[in-house]
Batch of 2 targets.
Target 1
Amino acid sequence: MMRIFYTLAISLVLTISFAFAQVPRLVHYQGELENAEGELFTGTTDLQIGIYKSPRAEKPTWIEIHTNVEIQNGIYSVMLGSQNPLKLSFYEYFLEAKSPDFESGARRKMIVGSGYNYRLGFLFSAYTIVWVAIFLFMLSIFSRQKKLINELGLIGKLQKEKASA
Amino acid sequence: MSLEKTKNPWVTLLGATLFIAMSVNLYLIFQFAPTERSMGHVQRIFYFHVPSAWVAFLAFGVVFVASILYLWKRDRKYNMVANSAAEIGVMFATLVLVTGPIWARPVWNTWWEWTPRLTLFLILWFIYIAYLMLRQFVDNEERSARFCAVFGIFGFVDVPIVYMSIRLWRDIHPSPVIAGGESSGMHPDIRVTFFFSLFVFTLLFIFMLIQRLRLEKSVVAVSDLKKEAALAA
């Protein structure tokens, strides 16, 4: 029974992971491309969007390139995750946009989780709590049962010893 | 009474059916059911919050019936059923109290409100926590079973009150979606997912009750053996 239970639990975890992997993780982002002097770029260019854990982190956690992005008065609009899947479990990160056609100020801006991600976090927490609680409850039943079987074996052994004495 | 070591093919079949049903349920919840317009993805909590409440009510109903039967027949097996069902009921009631606020925070912008439905459900949870504590505090098995049977019968009175509370009083809690009048109802895909979730959680309750009952029988068997050994000594 224990083996069946563990197989069931592991399969369930894998299924949950599969289900969450299927949820589209796209975040609409609108930013501003300006240089160190505060001048805004207008035109069409390629944008390299990087996400960093801190304003000074050297290595980006995630990166994607958007080609031929139209920018008006510095304002650009991209769908993060459309080129490279977003697999970040975050609420606060720093975004940096770079263009080969424009010497940007490269100031990183803090981005916060959108309502979509925020609410998905609540759903995920609730779902995890439900199944972990059920799993632990079943595990406690099986472990108590095992303990009782051991206890029963001990009582039987004592009875045998007494009978032989 | 002996420990049940032999495998029951029906229980194994139930376990396998449960596993398949749970996998299908996952697919329905996260893929098939449409995203609710105003609440978004967080509404999907509904598919395990409501079935958890249903299982808690069902478990407390089993406690109620088993308690009546115990007082009537004085057969300890009914006491064992009541104890097992109460434990499962408390676990699912706890899940309702945890998943409810997780849903409420993004939707109501508050974790908790002292409204009739929420308050009465919290009282229900306390009643059955007290029920389980009562079992621990009374040493004599027969007396403990009798007290708990009486407690189990009176404790159940809160269940229909909790259920009817959103119909009887003004409440922030969502209105009933089943048999709730003209304005109630669900999208057909949501309805399929919801009723399937209820079915899966009911199966889960049956499976858990069988396992918990098996444990209860083992506890009683070991306790009887210990008593016999003590008497022999």
Note: The CA atoms of residues 1 and 224 of chain B lie 8 Å apart.
Target 2
Amino acid sequence: MNNGKDNYALESKNVNFFYGSKQALENITMQIPEKKVTALIGPSGCGKSTYLRLFNRMNDLIAGTKVVGEVLVKNQDIYKNNVDLVELRQHVGMVFQKSNPFPKSIFDNVAYGPRAHGIKSKDQIAYIVERSLRQAALWEEVKDSLNKNATALSGGQQQRLCIARALAVEPDVLLMDEPASALDPIATQKIEELIMDLKQNYTIVIVTHSMQQAARVSDLTAFFYMGQLIEFGPTSKIFTNPSNTRTEDYITGKFG
Amino acid sequence: MRNFQFYKEKFIEFLLFGCAFLSVIATIGIALTLIVEAIAFFKIVSLKEFFTSSEWTPMFSEAKYGIAPLIAGTFLTTIIALLVAIPFGTIIAVFLSEYANKKFREAIKPVLEVLTAIPTVVFGYFALLFITPKLQVLLPDLPGFNVLSAGLVMGVMIIPYVSSLSEDAMQSVPNSLREGAYALGATKLRTAFTVIFPAALSGITSSYILAISRAVGETMIVAIAAGMQPNLTLNPTEPAQTITAYIVQVSMGDLPHGTIGYQTIFVAGLVLFIFTFLFNILGVYLRRRFREVY
């Protein structure tokens, strides 16, 4: 994949998105590069989460939604008819705002994805579980209680478990929808450190309400406002020298 | 004015308490009646005969009082009914909750629930006059009264109890779990059976328990279609009598008050009461045991 500057992990071309008759995204064209952290910011209802959920077709679960335009993952339009959703979601993993561990053991949570993709060997599953938990910086805390119910973990641990669960299917892209918004500052810090670690190997797109968080973790930042992409560029530029006055107003806290 | 408000509140509180108390009183009253008559019964018939004799012939001159044939009949019809109701009900619930779109679900649910509105006596004649002849095509030796036909129809009758409650339970599983599974690339089927079903297990279990209680207590279908002949058998192609069917049969006769025959009704009733009571307790226990905190 690393054979030229035109290779983007994710791309959208003139994408419009509708909830019934309400348009949530207008003509979004954007290229998200590989192995970088891209933050999507903007006020509530600006469409940033909707945009994020385009890339693993999570919006499909909501009745009456419609996508117009091209959404590309690895240069393939994922809204074409012949797309295998199982395969797509193996490439593009997701971590949600509210941690959502299954009411199963810690082990079974992480093993869920690999099992769903047909891995049967017990040794291999155990290996993947350990590797994923280590990647999510959770292994040391849970290695002696893998059979404990995941819902008994703390909020921050649950969220790292969800990250481990997503990593277990070996995605290339990780979509994160406000992954730390429900966590305390220490748990948030751990998640952010984790994101910095993971970007060596993964393309990460993160929706966040916290501008400080976007500034801390991201390489690129996209500012959404009322369904439009207002500005997209290197995080340092967006936060120090935005070209658009609305971006500046939002970042400096004049609205939002 | 304040006083008036106060007494009004008190009065309403008393009224609500009274209503709640009434149902408790009714239950206790029923249990007491059953127990008093049963004690009288056991003064004449030994517990040993009751539990070990393999015949139930209270109306014969040489009467035998073994409850086993009635329990066998009840057990057998219940098992057959559950073999129909649990798989079908569960699959319908999974379909409605995880596959069907909202419009279809709201249209089909009331239709299914109409099944519970059909009087059971109609189901009974449906079993006797429609299902049994059809079964006789397949099984030529099948008698006109048989457990199989009654059990199958009873199972159909119970399907909505299972499907409706199980579907409610699955619907109340938070959507975030569904999204979590889909986001990992799980198919709908896998999500339904490995995430949603286990998460809803507490509600699903209670629907099964309700189905069991319903099947054990069902009267008209078995009285009409399974026959009136106490029969210690586990062969579904034979006629048999359930506890409930026996009670109907004897209550409709003109047994004098205080005779042993009269008391058998209460003993049978007590056995039935104990069964359903135990299932209810089991239901409460399982509901707690499998309750998931989301």
Note: Residues 50-289 of chain B form a domain with the MetI-like fold fold (CATH 1.10.3720.10).
